[in-house]
User: Which sequence fits this backbone?
């Protein structure tokens, strides 16, 4: 697995606490958690499908960039990893502030969810997850920004798939099992290890970018 893919998975893991607070409460409210593993899995599959689709679109939109821009894109990716690490280390809280930018789009999409409520089957859970993949989330936008630096539709989609995979363990937990996981992610030593790992990955990406430039 590449450093890019590992970084995307790690962003997803770091996002888990935030995801449990936003999406986790919704799955309980909609009864998704109470309908069994298959329904919960279908909901999360829909959510990750949206992430991957957005990654594909943003990667396709930047695929026209010439190869000479790759070092600059790697530096941008490194900078994003640093910012996400600082957020997780409680040094910067900028990420959650960008969520309001997508609220107009979300207000238009949210009513679509009513078509599949109450959730009782996999067929209802998957499209609900597709819609909920657009829920305004600063960490998702950060992951998209990181994926965009690949400037390739399939590579960007793959990075968002890795991000979604990183969020999956937390989002598949139900009820009381989710709380210890969330507390674990918030313990100081876990934050230092995960945040430090992102900083190491960022340094490696920056080193690659500088090497490419010479």
Assistant:
């Amino acid at each position: 697995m590449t450093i890019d893919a590992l970084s995307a998975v790690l962003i997803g893991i770091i996002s888990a606490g935030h995801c449990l607070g936003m999406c986790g409460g919704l799955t309980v409210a909609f009864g998704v958690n109470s309908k069994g593993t298959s329904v919960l899995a279908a909901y999360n599959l829909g959510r990750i499908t949206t992430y991957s689709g957005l990654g594909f679109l943003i990667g396709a939109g930047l695929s026209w960039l010439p190869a000479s821009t790759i070092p600059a894109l790697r530096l941008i990716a490194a900078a994003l990893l640093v910012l996400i690490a600082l957020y997780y280390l409680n040094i910067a809280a900028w990420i959650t502030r960008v969520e309001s930018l997508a609220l107009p789009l979300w207000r238009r999409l949210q009513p679509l969810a009513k078509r599949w409520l109450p959730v009782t089957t996999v067929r209802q859970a998957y499209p609900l997850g597709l819609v909920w993949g657009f829920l305004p989330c600063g960490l998702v936008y950060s992951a998209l920004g990181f994926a965009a630096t690949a400037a390739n539709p399939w590579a960007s989609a793959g990075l968002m798939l890795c991000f979604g995979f990183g969020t999956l363990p937390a989002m598949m937990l139900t009820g009381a099992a989710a709380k210890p996981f969330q507390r674990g992610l918030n313990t100081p030593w876990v934050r230092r290890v995960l945040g430090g790992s992102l900083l190491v990955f960022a340094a490696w990406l920056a080193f690659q970018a500088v090497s490419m430039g010479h």
The chain has a mean pLDDT of 80. Residues 47 and 133 are 4 Å apart (CA to CA). The longest helix spans residues 3-29.
